[in-house]
Amino acid sequence: MQIAAQILSYDYFWEELRIRGGAYGAYCAYDPLAGSLAMISHSDPHIARTLGVFAGVREALDRTAWSAAEIERAVIACAREEETPIRPGMATDVALWRYIAGLTQERRRRWRQDQLGATPEAVREAALEVFRAAESRGGTAVLGRHHRLQQAAAALGQGIAIQPLAPRRASRIAGATPAR
Description:
The protein is mainly α.
C-alpha cells in the first residue's frame, strides 16, 4: 500500500488537488505498522472539492492500470523515505522505535524485497483492499480557518460539527488590542 500511496500522491493528488484544485500540497500516506491511512491536503482553498476527491479514490483505483515503470518510481520514492541517513542524535530514537515495533533488520529486508518484487496488479489489489476496509472504519477530520470550514459545510449540505482546537483569546473576539 505504501507504493500505491506514493503513486496517488505524485499522480492523482497532484493533478486533482494541486493543479485543478489549487491546494498548496497534497499527499497520501500509509503506515503499515500503525495500520493507518491518511489523505492530506494543505493550504487548500476548496475543502469540499478535496473531500470529494478523497471519497473518489477507490473508484479512481478501479479505473487505474499502473505500469511497471510507475511502480518502480514509487518503490524508489518509498526507499528514499525509509532509508534516509540517520543523524547520531536520532539514532537511538530510531533504534528504540524499531525495537518497540518489532522492525528487525530481517523484517526490513523482507519488506524491501517485497517492494522490489511488486507488480502493478498486486499494488492495485493491495490498495483496493485497504480502501475497502477504510470505507467502514475511516473518519474525516479537517483543520482550517473557521470561515472556510463553514463554506465547506454549506457546499456539502451536511451537518458538520465545527469545533475550535483552542479557545480564542478574548482580546481577539472583542477586537481589543492585547496588552504588552
